[in-house]
Specification:
heterodimer; A: 247 residues; mainly alpha; 0% strand; B: 312 residues; alpha/beta; Rossmann fold; Alpha-Beta Plaits; 6-stranded mixed sheet; 4-stranded antiparallel sheet; 12 helices; elongated
Chain lengths: 247, 312
């Protein structure tokens, strides 16, 4: 566990000197912030539109959607960069397990994205006095849980793919492709099967984020779904490192 | 400390290492020589647990590299061929990070000590990105020395350094080699000659020679050449030396020195010296003029490498 933490700490610090991390951070916060402002503006006008209540979950929804593009940009270099520079050789000959390396890389990136997510709590603070009697706390909590789980899962998959490819661009495209596939495409065959088509819908990320958690509905299956994705991502990454050793 | 037997490594259909066997003991500095692509780096990567062997038994610091990889990695210090470093970290931060991964006690103190060993203490808090190649090489070495490993494996440690730094690094290696095991690869032969207790010459995935630098020379040449210089005319002396037992060939050189050759095991030098002194000559110089390791290396790594070994 300690090794995971040491790797994670370096990874986390690395983000604060990485230009691409700043681009991602600025883009995420600018877009969600802009959206939030518009929402507040619309709510203030809503006297005439009829009872529009702004909710933080709307912002989190957008944040989650933007992660589809941001996470591949963040994770593409995680292992690929170490491979390119050759630093992987020292990490793989240090007395740490391959899993600890992957898990540490995941945790570091996860903590960075959590830091970005935590900035949106500011919006919640701004929002709460404007909504009477108070914001829907259950909805807010549920949407944050959803966003955090989503980020964890996407990062795990991104790290896993970064371990497979030694080229960053390839890693980015593969990760982004996988996300698009998981978000919508995998659910497409649902309508083709009159029986059992639900399975495909169940496999989409949207079914566990957009349709449930961000609507204030928390199901155990959603938790299982995201934890499974994290496990698959970390396992893939570890396996990729093992295979790299044999090549 | 290092026991390798029957090490085989295949990359797909290509056999990179073909049944390599050797030992290195504690307090021994072993030089690993060979042309590029001979299998030096592959062997070192297997010894450090970076990649598994296809076949063979490898014990490093008392542990099997395949079955107890983590135990081996704890006890080995490794400097890879291209020193991979994190440019955004300072030298001190980097060593601290590596030390933490190795769970060293007093890691900050240890990092500073090691920086001192490689003469980088003045730059401890500079970013690695600003370092010259020689400094990077030394940080890489510091990283390998940090945990005071029982076995040190260095892949071309002096490459890219200026002569002063080379001398410093060699001194460090020699110092460490006193009580630990050092295996280092090089293609600079004089370097191997200077610091190694033993030399392994590898070519095309096979060990073609293994011995002390001195023995390698005598074994290969089969005879030792000595140059003798005396004051004044030495024609008579050359005649006398010819009659000494064991002397195979005597040649009078233009500069009035005498070159003679004797078979290994029949050291004729004491008798030659006595003859010269008793004959009333002023003995000025007597030195071995042996084949340099460079020549041996070329000899061994040529196509006829295997036949050379058999005949020696």
């Amino acid at each position: 566990m300690r090794n995971i933490w040491i790797i994670a700490k370096r990874e986390y610090n690395h983000y604060f000197i990485s230009p691409i991390a700043y681009v991602v951070a600025v883009a995420l916060l600018l877009l969600t912030g802009g959206y939030f402002s518009l929402m507040l503006f619309a709510a203030n006008q809503s006297g005439s539109f009829g009872g529009f209540v702004p909710e933080i979950s709307e912002v989190n929804n957008l944040f989650g959607f933007l992660l589809l593009l941001s996470i591949p940009a963040l994770t593409m270099r995680v292992i690929a960069d170490e491979t390119r520079s050759g630093a992987i050789e020292l990490l793989l000959t240090a007395p740490i397990r391959d899993f600890e390396l992957i898990a540490g890389k995941w945790l570091g990136s996860f903590l960075f994205v959590l830091t970005l997510i935590s900035v949106t709590l500011l919006y919640l603070i701004i929002l709460s006095p404007q909504v009477t009697p108070h914001p829907d706390w259950k909805l807010a909590a549920s949407s944050y849980i959803g966003l955090i789980l989503l980020a964890g899962a996407l990062i795990a998959l991104g790290v896993g793919i970064s371990a497979i490819f030694s080229n960053q661009v390839t890693a980015f495209i593969a990760t982004f492709g996988l996300f698009i596939f998981l978000w919508w495409l995998i659910g497409a065959p649902a309508s083709l099967f009159p029986v059992g088509g639900d399975f495909f819908t169940y496999m989409t990320i949207n079914a566990h984020f957009g349709d449930t958690l961000s609507q204030g509905n928390f199901y155990l299956t959603d938790l299982t779904y995201f934890l499974s994705l994290i496990a698959i991502g970390l396992f893939t990454g570890t396996l990729a490192i093992e295979i790299r050793r044999w090549k | 400390m290092i026991q390798v037997s029957g090490l085989i490594k295949d990359y797909g259909a290509r056999r990179a290492l073909n049944s390599i066997s050797f030992n290195a003991n504690q307090g021994e500095i072993v030089g690993f020589l060979g042309p590029n692509g001979a299998g030096k780096t592959t062997t070192m990567r297997i010894l450090t647990g970076y990649m598994p062997p296809t076949d063979g038994t490898i014990i490093v610091a008392g542990h099997n590299v395949v079955e107890e990889s983590l135990e081996v990695r704890k006890r080995v210090g490794y400097l890879p061929e291209t020193v991979p470093l994190y440019n955004e970290m300072t030298a001190f931060e980097y060593l601290k990070f590596m030390g933490q991964l190795r769970r060293l006690p007093n890691v900050e103190e240890r990092a500073l000590e090691t920086l001192d060993t490689v003469n980088l203490d003045a730059r401890a808090h500079s970013y690695i990105g600003t370092f010259s190649k020689g400094m990077r090489q030394r940080i890489g070495l510091a990283q390998a020395l940090l945990h005071r490993p029982e076995v040190l494996i260095l892949d071309e440690p002096t490459i890219g350094l200026d002569p002063n730094q080379v001398a410093e690094i060699r001194e460090v290696i020699r110092e460490i080699g006193k009580d630990r095991t050092v295996l280092f690869s090089t293609h600079i032969l004089s370097e191997a000659q200077q610091i190694c207790d033993r030399v392994l010459i590898i070519n095309k995935g096979k060990i073609v020679a293994e011995d002390t630098p001195e023995n390698l020379q005598s074994k290969l040449v089969g005879a030792q050449q000595v140059i003798l210089r005396v004051r004044g005319d030495s024609d008579d002396l050359a005649e006398k030396i010819k009659k000494i037992k064991g002397v195979k060939r005597v040649e009078k050189k233009e500069d009035n020195s005498i070159e003679f050759e004797f078979s290994v095991g029949q050291d004729a030098r004491p008798l030659v010296a006595k003859t010269a002194v008793q004959g009333g000559y002023d003995l000025l110089e007597m030195r071995t003029a042996s084949m340099s390791l460079e020549e041996i290396f070329l000899e061994l790594t040529r196509e006829s490498a295997s036949s050379v070994k058999k005949s020696s």
